[in-house]
Amino acid sequence: QEYTALKLKVVEWAPKAAEAVKGKIPEDAKVYFVPATLRAETMYGQTCCFVGPSITYGLYKASEKEYFVITERAARNMAYQGIFEKEGVPEKAADVLGSDLIGTVVNAPLSFHKEVRVLPMESVLATKGTGVVTSVPSDSPDDYAMVTELAKKADFYGIKKEWAELEIIPIIQTPTSDLLAPYLVKKLKIASPKDAKQLLEAKELAYKEGFYQGVMKVGEFAGEKVEAAKPKVREQLIKAGEAFAYSEPENKVVSRSG
Ligand code: ZZB
After folding, report:
1. Phi, psi (5° rounding) for residue 44?
2. Domains in the chain, start-ordered, CATH in brackets?
3. Residue 74: which region, alpha, beta or left (left: phi > 0; alpha: psi -120 to 50)?
4. Among 21, 67, 107, 165, which is 20 to 30 Å from 91 by CA?
5. pLDDT tens profile 6-36
6. Tell me, what's the ipTM?
7. Best of 177, 246, 256 to mutate for ligand 1, by most ligand atoms within 8 A of CB?
C-alpha cells in the first residue's frame, strides 16, 4: 500500500500536549501531524485531523528541526524508508496520548480551511498508516459521520462545537452529487459512526464513484477527471515539501475493509 503522507504543521498545541512536549524538543523545531491518505486529490476539503483518543503517539525526530506525531509502528517503518535523516532506529522525543492532542491547531496543506483542529475518532486504527487521519467529510463517509457526531455531542467529546462545524466545500463532482459522502450517509441511513457495516458499504461506493466518475471541481486541475488529477496533486504536494511517499509493509496492512 503506497500512501501519501501529508505534513500538517502544529500552529498551537492543546494545553496537555504543550505540557508533554515542553523541553523535549528545540524551541524552534517544527512539529507535524502526519496523516496517511490514498486520496491526495481531496486535500482541498480537509476540515480537521483525527487521532485515536486512546492511542499513544510519539514525537519522532525526522531531522534536526522537524518532528512527526505518528505511531511508533509508523516511525519504525519510516526510519527504514529513508524518510528520517537518521536511518534505522527512530529517535523519540516524547510520548503523548491521543486524547491530550485534541484541540491542537494544525495547518492543512492545500485545504480551503488553512487551520484545522485535531479531533477524536474512536475507529482510527493504530495498526494502519500512521495512526493519524486527515478528515475530508465531503468525500469520506466515515469522516462525515464522525464530524456530524462530534458537532452533535461536542460536550461529551470535550470539544468546542465549532471545531467540528467547518464548512464542507464540494471538491469533486460525480454523476450523483458534488458532496458524495453526505449524500451516501443519508441514502444508506447512517445515523452515527457506530453503523460500521453501512459505513463500509458507503466507503466502497465513494471510492469507486469518486475515482472512476469524479471530476475535479476546484484547484489547479479543476475540470480534469479524478483519475488524472490524483497523481498530479500528489506530485505537487511532494514537490512543495508538504507531503512524501510512505509505504505500508505488505504483511502488516490492516484495512478497515478487512
Ligand atoms: C483522506 C481521505 C479522503 C480518505 C477521502 C478517504 C476518502 P482504507 O480504509 O483501506 O480505504 N485511514 C488512514 N489511516 C487510517 C487509520 N490508521 N485508521 C483509520 N482510517 C485510516 O484506507 C485509506 C483511508 O483510510 C485513508 O484515506 C484515510 O482516509 C483512512 F475522501 O484520507 B483517507 C471513500 C474514502 N474517501
Report:
1. -60, -25
2. 2-250 (3.90.740.10)
3. alpha
4. 107
5. 999 999 999 999 999 999 999 999 999 999 9
6. 0.98
7. 256
